[in-house]
Amino acid sequence: MAGREWEVVGGADKGGILVRDGEDLMSASLPDRLSTGAVIAEEELTGERLRFRLLSGSGPKSGWVSLKLRDKVLVQPRSASASSTAPGSKPTTLREAFGEARAYLEAQRAGKPSAEYKGDPRAAELAKQCEEWISEFVPLGNPVPVEFLLALGELHFRAGAPVEAAAVFQQGALAEGDAESSAELQRLAHIGVAAAGQAAEDLRLPGGPSAEEAAAAMAAAKALHRKTFGSLADAGVDAPRDMRPDGAASVALVLLHGNGGNGLDLRQAGLKLGATLEEHCRLVLPKGLYTAPNLVGKPGCSWRDERSDRRDPFRWDSVLRALAQLDTVLDTLQADGIPPERIILGGFSQGSFFSMLVALTRTPPVGGILVLGGSVGGRVAAFLRTMTGSQGSPSAQDLRAYLGHGAEDRTVPLAMGKMAVQELKALGLKDPEFKAYPGVGHEIPEQMLVDMGAAVRRWLMTDG
């Protein structure tokens, strides 16, 4: 029945359920999963295959999903009790009671993102109301289901009360082993703790999580993401390319594409750069797990989702997922016998942002980072401050970096590239190299690859 609402109930241990672009089970799978708890509208139902339109939750806006996987239900019709209670009637379940709050939060997430963190009085009203509902529906001494703690914590956060939000999120984060909770919900609770800690620090409010507590929460969330990646294929890597067949690779070159690109975008650049190293080089080209259009509007990949609203306590989730994904890649290379100091991590545009984040949060440090047409801005510093606590980056002092930038770049202006050098120094890097390339836009010229190859050879010689 077209228009009927369904709820995703499976996939909690995998970050959601698989979505394909066609009815056939052999059709291509989409990069993003449909989140557990998402509400979808039926467009077409053929046997146990459902074509849907996303109403709430995260994941693809449309596609095909299976109702069951063997004997496990993945999607089920949404019961009438899941809808908001009719005006004037008293809710009979906690889910009904939270209906108005859920509708508010969904509308806020779908709205225009804000670069400012400021409270919404309506969120404060709903938070107070939901606390009363919890008191009424949850017997004293019984745990509150984590999904409702997440909603209440987000209301406090959007109300401009991060200390109160942190206390609620911490309850959800501590629900380890609770059969009613899932790894996904606990992960979001950990992220909420960290976001609330940073907001409380920014607002100079006492009583919030300490820098160390926020860093521990980020590490716990990242570790939960890490459990979902068991192989290079899981981490968005097709077969790595050993550039010489005679003997094992002694150097790895890991290059990250820009927003809207894919793993193949940097293949030619990687082959040219690897050929300059005069060593057995393994070229690895991961691709982001999120979708984004490229410069001509065709679908491509991204390293993060579009959540950028400072009022959203869970906006870092996709960033942590990307870091866990890339940790899987680097851990696999090390397990194959390539030491960390001989792994070179680089990225173009958005990919450079993530190459810096990965390099600055790993120990021991990688052999160096190559920043091609990228910038730092305040984002890396703010994220690192929450990720690493008061100690700062554990690897910055030993990290080498080469930044190449087109002098005519209109996407990431040259001034931002130059500023990145000072910002990396402020983060602890000793002497990052920088070169601007005249007449070059947002692209990778041949000379940039030659210069980067020379820098990498120096780094490798220094490490012996």
Query: What's the CATH class label of the largest domain?
Result: Alpha Beta
Task: Please outline the major beta sheet.
Answer: 7 strands, mixed
pLDDT averaged residue by residue? 87
Total beta strands: 16
Superfamily (CATH H level) name of the largest domain: Alpha/Beta hydrolase fold, catalytic domain
Helical fraction: 25-40%
The value of Rg in angstroms is 23 Å
Which regions are unreliable across 5 or more consecutive residues at pLDDT < 50? 80-85
Count of individual domains = 3
Broad structural category: alpha/beta
Can you name the CATH architecture of the largest domain?
A: 3-Layer(aba) Sandwich
- Stated plainly, the CATH topology of the largest domain is called Rossmann fold
H/E topology pattern: EEEEEEEHHHHHHHEEHEEEHEHEHEHEH
Distance between the termini: 67 Å
Q: Using the alpha-carbon principal axes, give the shape.
A: globular
> Proportion of β residues?
15-25%
Sheet with most strands: strand arrangement: 8-10-9-13-14-15-16
The helix tally amounts to 13
Pfam families: Abhydrolase_2 (PF02230)
Family: Belongs to the AB hydrolase superfamily. AB hydrolase 2 family.
InterPro entries: AB_hydrolase_fold, LYPA1-2/EST-like, PLipase/COase/thioEstase
GO molecular function, one term: hydrolase activity
